[in-house]
Design goal:
two-stranded antiparallel sheet; single chain; disordered C terminus; 5 helices; 43% helix
């Protein structure tokens, strides 16, 4: 009889973990995605493709189209190294960074460092949402997981993050406000 108790407990724990995973999976699947289309500047080019004139978008910024292959790989490497060191090793959220940031905040009594990934930054920018509250951060986590799930490995050169939307060849590169 005693042998069955640990086995029963293990089955209960595994069942609870599976149910939790399934609930998380359904929560992510129900995420309403914002528009993934980024407004880009109108560009006038000559026959050879040389840029002659570009126009700002509605918010007064220049967002010029470029291909990921045209972005210096060293820039991408530096961006990932600075913003999200484990970018290639997580699925949109970085649990290690979240634990580290949480422990630092508890120890210091204030926020010392963040845990946002490039995908979470992209989620915030797509929704133009807040970041200072837990509800906003939870929404970023949910949206980041949903973006990763549908194959939008986020790499957005948009306020410190860069975005390659799946197989689309172009990126929107924001160069800042017009002068």
């Amino acid at each position: 009889m005693r042998l069955h108790q640990p086995v029963f407990a293990a089955v209960l724990v595994l069942g609870a973990m599976a149910a939790g995973r399934d609930a998380l999976d359904r929560w992510i699947a129900r995420t309403l995605l914002p528009s993934l289309a980024v407004e880009r500047s109108v560009e006038l080019r000559d026959r050879a493709g040389t840029l002659l004139r570009a126009f700002t978008v509605a918010d007064g910024r220049w967002r010029l189209g470029t291909r990921l292959s045209e972005v210096d790989p060293r820039f991408i490497a530096m961006l990932v190294a600075y913003e999200d060191k484990r970018y290639w090793h997580h699925a949109g959220i970085d649990p290690r960074a979240m634990i580290r940031a949480g422990l630092q905040a508890m120890r210091e009594g204030r926020i010392v460092s963040g845990a946002s990934t490039l995908t979470m930054q992209t989620a915030r920018l797509l929704e133009e949402g807040p970041t200072g509250k837990w509800t906003g951060k939870l929404r970023q986590i949910r949206l980041a997981l949903a973006l990763e799930r549908i194959g939008h490995r986020s790499h957005s050169v948009y306020d410190g993050s860069w975005t390659e939307w799946g197989s689309y060849p172009d990126l929107a590169v924001e160069t800042g406000p017009a002068r």
